[in-house]
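The instructor's notes for this session suggest beginning with a concrete chain rather than abstract definitions. Hand out the sequence below and ask the class to guess, before any prediction is shown, which regions might be ordered.
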Amino acid sequence: MSEERLDNIETKIAYQEDLLEVLNKTVYEQQKRLQLLEDRCAALSGSLTSLVQAVHENNAATNETPPHY
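After discussion, reveal the predicted structure:
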């Protein structure tokens, strides 16, 4: 194998290793953001559920028949 060909192969491998490292970091950062968004979505869902329950309880209390009926 010629020296030039070996250098080309080593250069390509070095670029691929660098690209793989960049891609791994990108996937890691995306996973962190995805987890953050999932946590926020769960918190919002819980808040919405609480609000809906509060509205239903308030409506039930408002729609009660007064005691003199």
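Then share the key points. The CA atoms of residues 35 and 41 lie 10 Å apart. The chain has a mean pLDDT of 91.
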